[in-house]
């Protein structure tokens, strides 16, 4: 496939857009940087998307780019876990996408938020901002915000974040920041996650 989504001159349908998804099922796509996209039965969830790379000539989902016109009339929830990511740049997406909600976790005004058939619980992340536990389309999806495991106290905060979770997780995305040379801390974070 070329980066413009074509092969031998024919358009190729991206399964993320074209495949039917049932309740309690999901498709997940990594968007580079801190970004993730999850498509459920009725929703498209976008987490910490940043368009910080050099823009390709044809920005498409295949090459890690989200373009509002390509999202169409899907029901979109965009989650921002940290103010450094947001900085107001996605506020206009609501004008381009009919059903769009921006959930800014850098300073939520509530601990729980329920609308339509969606429930969101905001949980503290130790690198500033918040994590999200989302109950949606028969799934429990957890996005951990950002965690920095640089000391024993930070590891204790990381463990506490999991003790605040109510119920099971079907999908968990847990970004862990670590400095160069701290590979053992990174692996410790993974071990703590699995243990939780």
Q: Tags for this entry?
A:
globular; disordered N terminus; 21% helix; 14 strands; 196 residues; single chain; alpha/beta
Tell me briefly what this model is.
This protein has 196 residues and is of the alpha/beta class. The chain has helices at residues 15-18, 68-71, 83-86, 93-96, 152-163, 183-195, and strands spanning 6-7, 10-11, 27-30, 36-39, 43-47, 75-80, 99-104, 112-115, 118-124, 130-136, 139-143, 147-148, 171-173, 176-177. The chain has a five-stranded mixed β-sheet.
- Order of secondary-structure elements: EEHEEEHEHHEEEEEEHEEH
* End-to-end C-alpha gap: 40 Å
Major sheet attributes: 5 strands, mixed
Helix content: 10-25%
C-alpha geometry: globular
**Low-pLDDT residue intervals, each spanning 5 or more residues:** 1-12
Oligomer: single chain
User: What is the mean pLDDT?
Assistant: 76
As a percent range, the share of strand residues is: 25-35%
Q: Would you report the number of β strands?
A: 14
Total number of helices: 6
Based on secondary structure, the structural category is: alpha/beta
- Major beta sheet, strand line-up: 3-4-5-6-7
Instruction: Kindly provide the radius of gyration, computed on alpha-carbon positions and rounded to a whole number of angstroms.
Output: 17 Å
